[in-house]
């Protein structure tokens, strides 16, 4: 298939493109810059210049493809709600091109939206429409496209990591440097799921090749690592004290990240592994955090 890949030079997309090519697909990769276009050409992909605000160009890219994988997202989390609204508009634009065809689109969301409540791990068969995560807009938009007859598949992400980036943990590192301490809330027993970025890239390709319309897939290698375990590794790497915060102290320390700091977000990928034969083999989150260059 000829696949239109948004975010093709991003953290995850840049790993998906080679996996697609290795699986025999052609890749039309969306990028914002000529430098990004050159990087895509070097791996054997074609480039399509566009930004998330340029909906006409995004539609033009989708029109040239047999399938769409949408990973582009504005990761300025201090403006998270507005960026989720932007993602809604992009998904709608992509869907407008695919309507009336059998061409699939894979969209991206977060594992927390599969939270059934009561502390159980999030599951693929659950869509918690009362979840406070603003990223719920992506799934709600995808659901509307599904109801319009479009083949929509969702890949839900945990903390996706290597030794350079680790999802929400990356801004935690920046906050810790600024505040001079690494913090967790209460006993630090709230859990965050995780997966290595290369394994996540492989899952997108499996979801394209073997997935089903309307399905949600969890890119989860580890169901949940406690906030305290994460903080202790960061404290060692940053050479900063590790402290417990009361709920009242959270907003002042974490700022915009306060909404995430105490969330317990375990997630399962049991159904995904059974359906797609996905078996993550990369390093654990703690291993990547220990191997990170904290002097950078």
Overall pLDDT score: 96
Spatial separation of the terminal alpha carbons: 40 Å
The arrangement of helices and strands along the chain is EHEHEHEHEHEEHEEHEEHEHHHH
The percent range for helix content is 40-55%
Contiguous runs where pLDDT drops below 50 for at least 5 residues: none
Beta-strand share of residues = 15-25%
Number of helices: 12
Broad structural category = alpha/beta
Work out the oligomeric state of the chains in this entry.
single chain
- Walk across the major sheet and give the strand order: 3-2-1-4-5-6-10
How many β-strand stretches?
12
Radius of gyration: 19 Å
Identify the overall geometry: globular
The biggest beta sheet reads: 7 strands, parallel
């Amino acid at each position: 298939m000829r696949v239109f890949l948004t975010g093709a030079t991003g953290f995850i997309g840049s790993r998906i493109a080679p996996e697609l090519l290795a699986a025999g697909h052609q890749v039309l990769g969306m990028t914002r810059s000529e430098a990004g276009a050159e990087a895509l050409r070097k791996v054997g992909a074609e480039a399509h210049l566009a930004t998330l605000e340029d909906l006409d160009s995004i539609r033009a890219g989708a029109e040239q493809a047999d399938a769409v994988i949408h990973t582009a997202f504005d990761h300025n989390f201090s403006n998270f709600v507005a960026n989720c609204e932007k993602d809604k508009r992009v998904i709608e634009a992509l869907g407008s091109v695919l309507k009336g065809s059998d061409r699939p689109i894979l969209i991206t969301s977060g594992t927390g939206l599969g939270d059934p409540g009561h502390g159980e791990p999030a599951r693929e068969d659950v869509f918690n429409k009362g979840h406070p995560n603003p990223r719920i807009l992506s799934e709600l938009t995808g659901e509307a496209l599904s109801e319009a007859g479009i083949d929509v598949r969702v890949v839900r992400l945990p903390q996706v990591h290597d030794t350079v980036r680790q999802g929400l943990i990356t801004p935690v590192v920046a906050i810790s440097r600024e505040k001079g301490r690494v913090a967790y809330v209460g006993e630090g027993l709230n859990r965050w799921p995780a997966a290595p970025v290369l394994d996540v890239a492989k899952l997108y390709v499996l979801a394209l090749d073997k997935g089903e319309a309307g399905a949600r897939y969890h890119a989860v290698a580890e169901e949940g690592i406690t906030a305290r375990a994460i903080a202790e590794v960061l404290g060692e790497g940053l050479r900063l004290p590790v402290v417990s915060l009361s709920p009242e102290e959270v907003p002042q320390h974490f700022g915009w990240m306060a909404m995430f700091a105490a969330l317990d977000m375990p997630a399962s990928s049991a159904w995904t592994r059974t359906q797609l034969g996905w078996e993550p083999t990369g390093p654990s989150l703690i291993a990547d955090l220990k191997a990170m260059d904290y002097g950078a």
